[in-house]
Amino acid sequence: MGQILSQPLTDKESESGQNKHLAYGLSCMQGWRISMEDAHTTILDLEKTNNNNNNNNNDDIKTDDDNSNDDNETKTASTSKNTVTDSTDPVAFFAVYDGHGGDRIAKYTGDNLYKLITKEPEFHKGNFGKALQNTFLATDREILEDNELKLDQSGCTATTVLLNSKKIVCANAGDSRTVLSVNGSAKPLSYDHKPNNEGEHARICAAGGFVDIGRVNGNLALSRAIGDFDFKKSTDLPPEEQIVTAFPDIIEHDITENDEFVVLACDGIWDCLSSQQVVEVVRRGINDRKSLVEISESIMDVCLAPSSGGSGIGCDNMSIVIVALLQGKTLEEWYDHIIAK
Questions:
Q1: CB within 8 A of 311, min separation 6: which ones?
Q2: Overall number of domains in the chain
Q3: CA-based nearest residue to 90, from 123, 47, 131
Q4: Parent domain of 172
Q5: pLDDT tens digits, residue range 228-257?
Q6: In what order do the strands lie in the sheet with 259-265?
Q7: How many angstroms separate the Cα of 56 from the Cα of each of 50, 86, 117, 129, 135?
Q8: 56-115: per-residue pLDDT in tens?
Q9: How many Å apart are CA 132 and CA 114, to the nearest integer?
Q10: What is the CATH number of the domain that holds 109?
């Protein structure tokens, strides 16, 4: 379960943002864990943000030292790069990274993975899935080029989405998860990568590893991750075939009028609530006209264990992002539309 505190840290770091296509609310909490190993990224216009970064113009980037605040943005402890965009159909990017064995790989990934996406030629061809797959592997390569980070023993999951007004593309490695609410029913946009899964087990064994008590080499409880280089040492195998791989699964979804919102979260949420339960809690919050941040915070409160003496469920770090698919509506109209269903 990892080291725990005598009392949970329940202070929440939250943020929100929107443009004409999307609105989101995010919250994260350290909880019972002795340190916070989650990271996240929320970007409403990926190309604009990366172009600004390349031009050394970071006016729309929030940091811990930025005391400004407005209706659409709140300061966050992780990576938040947002403006209310005016592009015709900007591509947004959202991600949750759940670290294990430390926070360095998760924090690095949260701060850097998004920068590589728009460098991929496939992104500019509209092949978002391939661009994300290439980017996950490129992030591993960048870490290995860092003389300090390449020695770090930690790793992180990554559940990410690229989306515009027409399409959602989810890339996932590990056991964080992304789900879509379709008329109140949870549709998976990712599947958890666990060592006992048939395909994962086969790859692990083919690469010279083994699975014991549901863990890779008796150690790691998930089978895909960024980092974790102790499990990626087979020089005769490509990255996709290593004992643990950063190569993500891709699920693409064409947005329809029945689609309501997307939820990305770490397993600190999913270990406590099923995908359908989370969708139902979000919809109840919408019915009560709670903000997306308030709903995110309330879900973490529900998941937090009352004590640390049980199974460990509810004692993990927690991060959750709720993304409203506005589809031409204002945020208020979107609330009205879902409430009326």
A1: none
A2: 1
A3: 47
A4: 4-340
A5: 999 999 999 999 999 999 999 999 999 999
A6: 4-18, 22-33, 318-325, 259-265, 177-182, 185-188
A7: 10, 21, 18, 28, 22
A8: 544 443 333 333 333 333 333 455 554 333 458 999 999 999 999 999 999 999 999 999
A9: 9
A10: 3.60.40.10
